[in-house]
């Protein structure tokens, strides 16, 4: 009766988006580890155990059965469970236990047969129609539509009506019913796999279409299809037994759980045990395959919700306690719009808390722009979210130090005060404007909401203020735009709307997380110039998180260079970029192609190695393994360098003075 | 414009569906005219009946004859009772619809509520309990659950009647029973799509406006996750109509499902034909309606439709 | 590899067009015009050189790259590779041809099959083109290439998700060069990588080009990369080259107003210079390729046209989006022409003919001068 495709295939996208992820521990995908992944989940373990249990029953039924399942005995009808007849006897005096055990063969056999029929017809159809497209696709999908116009048990009934009631026909009927589900899912996952760049890679390599399907598409959709098979097995079993229950499936005297349930119906008032055992076996077997399917799904389907580790809350509360104590120590309120002191932020991972921001102290004055520069994994986005009070709840928390925004120390505020702080003092601009706007609400709704929250403006005032905001961010025709939805705007326009919303309550600080990385170069300049103009008009502080040194040079006043969760160099942009003292800053600046081209170099002065894995940092200075200056000196490995004034800026390098002239 | 497009897409489907149902008669073993006439009838009598049923006409005309049966009660007659199929169906339709609509409403309310709770309380014991219950819900054979309900509430406790459709009390158990599956499915779906939406930046945008967590969930998260849920609601409604063949058998309710099952076991093919057509018609209409609701919920779909 | 010693062009394209049909709705009878992703592009790439195609999203640069590789068929015009017209080949022959032209994609996270080890990925290329006699020879070739791209043998049996971004891109490059192609098409080869890793990959690419005598086609939006790596560059806007010529000349002395705006957007790392300099920011965004503006497609955003428009007599100007621009721009499609002595072709009615280009916009030129 379950016509819904388990909602896996159609939305096969990884949804993590731009949320800072706790660094993932890279797993190896091959065979055995997949089984381990299934067994690691409780549902996978229970599901698999039950499936094996049923398989054993079905395979060894003749040896397990205590009586002849067909032997009638009119002196022992409708007996309750006893030591001779564990599950009692039925209306003809047959042993219910033996009938159930023997029935496992039929019931599970129908399930296997049905899924097999559906798989063998549906999957090739789906893959073919995704691969060939055009007419084949159109006709297949039309046929699927037509088949889906019948409720599936009705469809199965019709098939049985034509072919007659028997076990084989039931297999065929329930198989046929599931064909559209397989075809649709196979088509959807094939389409999304075909859209993957690695398929284009193999095609451009010169692979033939057959090879692409066999070697690249099928292995990558196999997991999803396996998942679907398991889930469909459960529903096929239920549909088939439903037919049996109606007397249209396996015919008596052959035992089958649905048929047995149907027979027990007349005795429900007097002998409920007849229905109990057959129903229990049926329900638990469906549960087993559903559990297994769920476990498979969380392994194979990237869009499946991931298992959340228990105990997160407890740890987070503990972390908050630490933060409280630490911040009490240096509680002097700050007048600057933003100030952090020795801020630590940690993610909760399977192996315990993982510090991503490891002691950052910074301060932004009103009317100035501080740029935080760093690579992926440097902790720069997490830092911004901590200041924005938007750390993902239950997954990350401030584990030490303090954040002060607009003179208020964030950790000391209650929920309501944090809301007020967010509303009045903080504006946030995210990297991906497309996902930062709610797709189902109009622009007017969303800007209006920013104005309305916590204020008592009339609808007319809200409208006129919204229009004024859109004009501020240079959007033409603002009256007309209010009624439009986000998808009707280009990327640059969406980012302008986000900025308008961030500015709605005249914040003291604007936090911008890579606000232009997703945009075209000419649009980038438009957006940053707009932010600069807004800052000049309103005098707010801006925190700009970016990886682009050029943008920092052009638009920021101060800069902090982050590496492995710490600021390694900070100061005024002019000073830091003119004479970087930290080897990392120096190499970053000099490895830009424009600088190298200007110096007439034919090879870029690259930094060796890769950005560090935050979970496995080296002792001492985190940059040591990639550093050209360290040269094996023991101090670098022994002590973590602290930020200290060197020249016009502060630098965290033991040998900052060695910077070449 | 979109409505027209969708209608235009639904009409050929309906047409093909009706063709299939029509041809389906030819697949049934045995001679319908002979069945209707009864084993005692002479060959001439069978021929007369065959003629009256239009079985001698060429294919296209027989199809028109079949479609005509939808509008003219005299053309399609039950082989078993001799009454017009239209009467048989219209007498039973209300019972089926009451159970399906009631079950869906109850299921959606239960499912959405538990789904939201589950998403907001990830990793707690509430989440675990609901997850176990929903998994049980989708694994439960409704005929067994029905029997258990009858045994408990009708036989053991004696609170409600076990079978029939005379008063509202007769509908309580069937509605409870059929609501389990949509409730479980809906709960899981709402949880999954809420969790997916929870990671989106626009929730943080909303939080940074100073909205309360409840406002963030209700205004921003839920509506987006409902988009996926609505289409499933449609599918579930259809499935419940189909499930009526079993529910009505279990609870002894005279509805279309029961009618169809009886017709199949007695080879009463006009009844089979028209009741299957009825189911298909409902299914297509429901899909149309859910498409329209999705469209209303998600403005992006409107544009896709236009671009197509 | 005797053909490598021949001089001449690795690739030539003549009036290449790639159009995509647009399907109308069920009830709309009107025939929609196709999307003209690439709309009349000609160029020649000498063997062993590096040609860069620069543009923003929607410019058609990725479509052009795929037409060069043979993944998309040209609607009109021709692509000639080593003297063979791609359009004249059937599917099997095209697959053969692909050995010579390899594509390296932008995102190394997505461009490798997650279910294949590095070794299997590399071996596939050898199997497909039947380049090695036996498994041993395959392994020898695989190990040779892996070392060439700066990875070690120990990486061979890993799956892509056990590699870092830079390592994956090295694998993608190894897959590109393992069957000894003559041309490598690089689609934004470093833009998905971390800044500190980008330089490594750029160096690797330049070393490989020298060592393997490769011809490069680089698709990018980053003009600073072009100035560093490319010999020639074509700047694309809505499916056409607006400026094409030697990279040094185009980057140092851009003529077309679009090229100049793109260069202005490239910010150097000298804060004093960046902050003191007035930056001319291009307004608006790229129009939809479904509704291309008439005349010169750039006229809706062109700063030069807005500059010239008001100076013209009323009869010779029109008003577009609130600004006066020359009527010619909105009416007539400009033809490529060579404004100066350098072999640079510019597709603009006015650029380079009237006033000399102002030096303010030539950012890279300043840097170049300072560097010397």
UniProtKB/TrEMBL annotation, chain A:
Protein's UniProt keywords contain Zinc-finger: no
One annotated Gene Ontology cellular component of this protein: plasma membrane
Start and end residues of each ABC transporter domain: 338-589
Gene3D superfamilies assigned: MetI-like, P-loop containing nucleotide triphosphate hydrolases
UniProt-listed InterPro entries: AAA+_ATPase (IPR003593), ABC_Ni/Peptide_Import (IPR050388), ABC_transporter-like_ATP-bd (IPR003439), ABC_transporter-like_CS (IPR017871), MetI-like (IPR000515), MetI-like_sf (IPR035906), Oligopep_ABC_C (IPR013563), OppC_N (IPR025966)
Superkingdom of the source species: Bacteria
Keywords tagged on the record: ATP-binding, Cell membrane, Membrane, Nucleotide-binding, Transmembrane, Transmembrane helix, Transport
Family: Belongs to the binding-protein-dependent transport system permease family. Belongs to the ABC transporter superfamily.
The protein, known as: Dipeptide/oligopeptide/nickel ABC transporter permease/ATP-binding protein
UniProtKB/TrEMBL annotation, chain B:
Keyword Zinc-finger in record: no
UniProt GO cellular component terms: plasma membrane
Subcellular location: Cell membrane
Record-linked InterPro entries: BPD_transp_1_N (IPR045621), MetI-like (IPR000515), MetI-like_sf (IPR035906)
Superkingdom of this protein's organism: Bacteria
Predominant location: membrane
Domain (ABC transmembrane type-1): residue spans on this chain: 93-290
Lipid bilayer topology: Multi-pass membrane protein
PROSITE patterns, alphabetized: ABC_TM1
Keywords for the protein's UniProt record, in alphabetical order: Cell membrane, Membrane, Transmembrane, Transmembrane helix, Transport
Family: Belongs to the binding-protein-dependent transport system permease family.
Example GO BP: transmembrane transport
Transmembrane segments: 7-25, 97-120, 132-159, 171-190, 226-251, 271-297
Protein name: ABC transporter permease
Automatic annotation (TrEMBL), chain C:
Domain ABC transporter span(s) in chain numbering: 22-263
GO molecular-function term, one example from the UniProt record: ATP binding
UniProt topology in membrane: Peripheral membrane protein
Domain of life: Bacteria
Span list, region Disordered: 350-372
Subcellular location per the Swiss-Prot or TrEMBL entry: Cell inner membrane
Gene Ontology cellular component annotations, sorted alphabetically: plasma membrane
Family: Belongs to the ABC transporter superfamily.
Listed name of the protein: ATP-binding cassette domain-containing protein
Organism, as annotated: Szabonella alba
């Amino acid at each position: 009766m379950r016509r819904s495709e388990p909602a896996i295939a159609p939305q096969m996208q990884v949804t993590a988006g731009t949320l800072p992820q706790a660094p993932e521990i890279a797993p190896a995908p091959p065979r055995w580890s997949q089984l381990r992944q299934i067994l690691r989940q409780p549902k996978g373990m229970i599901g698999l155990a039950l499936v094996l249990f049923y398989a054993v029953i079905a395979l060894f039924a003749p040896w397990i059965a205590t009586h002849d399942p067909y032997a009638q005995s009119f002196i022992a009808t409708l007996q309750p469970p006893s030591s001779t007849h564990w599950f009692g006897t039925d209306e003809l005096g047959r042993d219910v236990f033996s009938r159930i055990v023997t029935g496992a063969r039929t019931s599970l056999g129908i399930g296997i047969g049905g899924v097999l029929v559906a798989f063998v017809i549906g999957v090739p159809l789906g893959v073919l129609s995704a691969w060939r497209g055009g007419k084949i696709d159109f006709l297949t999908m039309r046929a699927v539509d037509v088949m889906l116009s019948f409720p599936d048990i009705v469809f199965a009934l019709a098939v049985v009506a034509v072919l007659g009631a028997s076990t084989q026909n039931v297999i065929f009927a329930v198989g046929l019913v599931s064909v559209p589900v397989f075809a649709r899912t196979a088509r959807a996952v094939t389409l999304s796999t075909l859209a993957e760049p690695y398929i284009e890679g193999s095609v451009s390599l010169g692979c033939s279409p057959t090879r692409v399907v066999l070697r690249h598409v099928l292995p990558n959709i196999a997991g999803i299809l396996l998942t679907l098979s398991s889930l469909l097995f459960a529903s096929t079993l239920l549909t088939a037994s439903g037919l049996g229950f109606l007397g249209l499936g396996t015919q008596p005297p052959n035992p089958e759980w649905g048929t047995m349930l149907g027979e027990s119906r007349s005795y429900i008032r007097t002998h409920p045990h007849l229905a109990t055992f057959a129903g229990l076996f049926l329900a638990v077997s469906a549960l087993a395959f559903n559990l297994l399917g769920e476990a498979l799904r969380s392994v194979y389907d990237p869009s499946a919700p991931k298992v959340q580790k228990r105990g997160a809350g407890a740890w987070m509360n503990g972390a908050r306690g630490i933060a409280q104590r630490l911040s009490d120590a240096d509680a002097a309120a700050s007048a600057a719009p933003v100030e952090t002191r020795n801020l630590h932020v940690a993610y909760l991972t399977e192996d315990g808390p993982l510090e991503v921001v490891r002691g950052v102290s910074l301060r932004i004055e009103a009317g100035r722009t501080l740029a935080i520069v760093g690579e992926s994994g440097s902790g720069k986005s997490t830092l911004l979210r901590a200041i924005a009070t938007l750390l993902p709840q239950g997954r990350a928390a401030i584990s030490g130090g303090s954040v002060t925004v607009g003179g208020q120390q964030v950790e000391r505020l209650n929920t309501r005060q944090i809301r007020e702080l967010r509303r009045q003092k903080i504006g946030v601009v995210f990297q991906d404007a497309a996902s930062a706007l709610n797709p189902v609400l109009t622009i007017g709704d969303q800007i209006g909401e920013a104005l309305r929250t916590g204020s008592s403006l009339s609808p007319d005032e809200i409208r006129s203020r919204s229009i004024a905001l859109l004009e501020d961010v240079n959007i033409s025709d603002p009256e007309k735009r209010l009624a439009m939805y986000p998808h009707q705007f280009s990327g640059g326009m969406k980012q302008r709307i986000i900025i308008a919303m961030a500015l709605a309550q005249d914040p003291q600080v604007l936090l911008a997380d890579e606000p232009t990385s997703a945009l075209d170069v000419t649009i980038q300049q438009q957006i940053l110039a707009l932010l600069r103009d807004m800052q000049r008009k309103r005098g707010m502080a801006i925190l700009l998180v970016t990886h682009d040194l050029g943008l920092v040079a052009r638009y920021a006043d101060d800069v902090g260079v982050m590496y492995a969760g710490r600021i390694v160099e900070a100061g005024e942009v002019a000073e830091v970029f003119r004479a970087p003292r930290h080897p990392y800053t120096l190499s970053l600046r000099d490895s830009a192609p424009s600088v190298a081209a200007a110096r007439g170099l034919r090879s870029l002065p690259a930094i060796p190695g890769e950005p560090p894995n935050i979970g496995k940092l080296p002792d001492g200075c985190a940059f040591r393994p990639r550093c050209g200056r360290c040269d094996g000196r023991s101090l670098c490995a022994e002590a973590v360098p602290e930020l200290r004034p060197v020249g016009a800026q502060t630098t965290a390098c033991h040998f900052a003075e060695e910077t070449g002239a | 414009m979109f409505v027209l497009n969708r209608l235009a897409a639904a009409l050929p489907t309906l047409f093909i569906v009706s063709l299939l149902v029509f041809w389906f008669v030819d697949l049934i073993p045995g001679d319908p005219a002979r069945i209707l006439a009864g084993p005692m009838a002479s060959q001439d009598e069978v021929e007369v009946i065959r003629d009256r049923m239009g079985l001698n006409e060429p294919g296209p005309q027989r199809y028109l004859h079949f479609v005509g049966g939808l509008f003219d009660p005299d053309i399609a007659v039950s082989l078993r009772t001799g009454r017009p199929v239209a009467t048989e169906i219209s007498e039973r339709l209300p019972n089926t619809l009451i159970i399906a609509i009631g079950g869906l409403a109850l299921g959606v309310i239960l499912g959405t509520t538990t789904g939201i709770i589950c998403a907001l309380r990830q990793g707690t014991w509430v989440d675990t309990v609901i997850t176990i219950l929903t998994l049980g819900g989708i694994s439960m054979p409704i005929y067994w659950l029905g029997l258990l309900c009858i045994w408990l509430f009708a036989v053991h406790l004696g609170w409600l009647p076990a079978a029939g459709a005379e008063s509202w009390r007769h509908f309580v158990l069937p509605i409870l029973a059929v609501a389990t599956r949509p409730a479980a499915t809906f709960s899981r779906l709402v949880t999954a799509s809420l969790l997916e939406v929870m990671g989106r930046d626009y929730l943080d945008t909303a939080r940074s406006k100073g909205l309360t967590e409840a406002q963030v969930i209700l205004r921003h998260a839920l509506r987006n996750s409902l988009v996926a849920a609505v289409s499933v609601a449609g599918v579930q409604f259809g499935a419940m109509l189909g499930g009526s063949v079993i529910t009505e058998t279990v609870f002894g309710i005279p509805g279309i499902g029961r009618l169809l099952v009886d017709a199949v076991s007695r080879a009463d093919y006009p009844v089979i034909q028209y009741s299957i057509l009825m189911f298909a018609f409902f299914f297509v209409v429901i899909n149309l309606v859910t498409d329209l609701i999705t469209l209303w919920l998600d403005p992006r779909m409107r544009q896709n439709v236009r671009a197509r | 590899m005797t053909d490598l010693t021949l001089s001449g062009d690795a690739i030539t394209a003549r009036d290449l067009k790639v159009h995509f049909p647009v399907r109308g709705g069920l009830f709309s009878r009107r025939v929609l015009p196709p999307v003209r992703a690439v709309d009349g592009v000609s160029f020649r790439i000498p063997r062993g050189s590096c040609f860069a195609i620069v543009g923003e999203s929607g410019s058609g640069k990725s479509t052009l790259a795929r037409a060069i590789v043979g993944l998309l068929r040209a609607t009109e015009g021709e692509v000639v590779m080593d003297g063979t017209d791609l359009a004249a080949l059937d599917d099997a022959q095209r697959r053969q041809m692909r050995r010579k032209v390899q594509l390296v994609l932008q995102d190394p996270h997505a461009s490798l099959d997650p279910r294949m080890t590095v070794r299997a990925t590399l071996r596939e290329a050898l199997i497909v083109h039947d380049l090695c006699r036996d498994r041993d020879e395959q392994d020898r070739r695989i190990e040779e290439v892996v070392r060439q791209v700066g990875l070690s043998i120990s990486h061979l049996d890993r799956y892509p998700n056990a590699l870092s971004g830079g390592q994956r891109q090295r694998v993608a490059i190894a897959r590109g060069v393992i069957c000894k192609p003559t041309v490598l098409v690089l689609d934004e080869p470093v833009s998905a990588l971390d800044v500190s890793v980008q330089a490594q990959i750029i160096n690797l690419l330049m070393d490989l080009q020298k060592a393997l005598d490769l011809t490069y086609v680089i698709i990018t939006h980053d003009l600073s990369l072009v100035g560093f790596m490319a010999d020639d560059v074509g700047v694309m806007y809505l499916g056409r080259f607006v400026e094409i010529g030697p990279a040094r000349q185009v980057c140092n002395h851009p003529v077309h107003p679009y090229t100049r705006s793109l260069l202005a957007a490239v910010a150097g790392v000298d804060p004093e210079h960046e902050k003191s300099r007035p930056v001319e920011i291009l307004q608006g965004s790229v129009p939809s390729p479904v509704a291309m503006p008439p005349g010169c497609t750039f006229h809706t955003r062109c700063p030069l046209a807005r500059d010239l428009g008001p100076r013209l007599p009323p009869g010779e100007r029109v008003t577009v989006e609130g600004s006066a621009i020359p009527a010619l721009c909105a009416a007539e499609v400009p033809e490529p022409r060579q404004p100066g002595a350098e072999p640079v072709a510019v597709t603009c009615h006015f650029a380079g003919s009237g006033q000399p280009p102002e030096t303010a916009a030539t950012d890279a030129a300043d840097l170049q001068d300072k560097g010397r």
